[in-house]
Write a structure and sequence with these properties.
Layout: H1 2-10, H2 12-18, E1 24-25, E2 35-41, E3 46-55, E4 60-64, E5 70-72, E6 78-82, E7 87-91, E8 94-102, E9 105-113, H3 115-124, H4 130-136, E10 152-162, E11 165-168, H5 171-177, H6 183-190, H7 200-211
Antiparallel strand pairs: 1-10, 2-3, 2-6, 3-4, 4-5, 6-7, 7-8, 8-9, 9-10, 10-11
Helix pairs in contact: 6-7
Length: 212
């Protein structure tokens, strides 16, 4: 573990200089500290867990166990997770946070560490081998290591909940799922010079137009 820490921090400067992702965090958790959450299970039961967080490696739920260890929850049993300021829904094997709602429709976002970008950057620094990176980097024991000097690249994957269906936000999925009468509105919004597929406000504008 000591060797891992030394190698990890040797790579910090390289990561800061080479990372091209505008969205970065200096931690591997969604929130700076563990905090309470209400968890709705698939059977409808709601449980409150005092110390939880979102692990950005896979956008999963972690919690402090009674033994003081950081544990990763089994998402197959979870429907949604509510923190005081953010609502998450399980989409496939990830937890997606709700950006905003438009009537019965909504925009969700899965925020994760860009592992491919991180791996390439660290391997290019010649400070860590691929085995060390895959075996030692970004597991629940890493949470106890100070990582404030490392910039972790974050990627966002967006989803629409639209007319009761959940699907990724990209052109092919949207155009085949919205009513034909909404295709004109779709083309108007997506042709705007300010529109971006990575901008939440743009995606909400599109959702409002196709929800009218």
């Amino acid at each position: 573990m000591k060797k891992f820490i030394i190698l990890l921090f040797t790579a910090c400067l390289t990561i800061s200089l080479q990372a091209q992702t505008a969205n970065t965090l200096h931690r591997i958790l969604a929130f700076p500290e563990f905090k309470p959450a209400s968890i709705t299970l698939m059977d409808g039961k709601v449980v409150t867990v005092p110390l939880t967080n979102i692990f950005l490696k896979r956008s999963t739920l972690i919690y402090h166990s009674l033994g003081g260890k950081n544990m990763e929850a089994r998402l197959s049993n979870i429907k949604s997770v509510d923190f005081s300021d953010r609502h998450y829904e399980r989409i496939d094997t990830m937890l997606a946070w709700r950006v905003d709602t438009v009537g019965k429709n909504a925009l969700y976002c899965v925020s994760k560490i860009d592992l491919a970008s991180l791996r390439n950057t660290m391997l290019n620094s010649r400070s860590m081998t691929n085995v060390e990176l895959s075996n030692s980097m970004l597991n629940t024991t890493t949470l106890d290591i100070p990582l404030e000097d490392i910039e972790f690249p974050i990627i966002n994957q967006f989803f629409y909940v639209y007319n009761g269906k959940t699907f990724p936000v990209h052109e092919r999925e949207i155009t085949r799922r919205i009513p034909k009468k909404k295709l004109y509105d779709y083309k108007v919004v997506t042709s705007l010079p300010t529109f971006s597929w990575t901008d939440p406000e743009s995606l909400l504008t599109l959702l409002r137009r196709i929800s009218q």
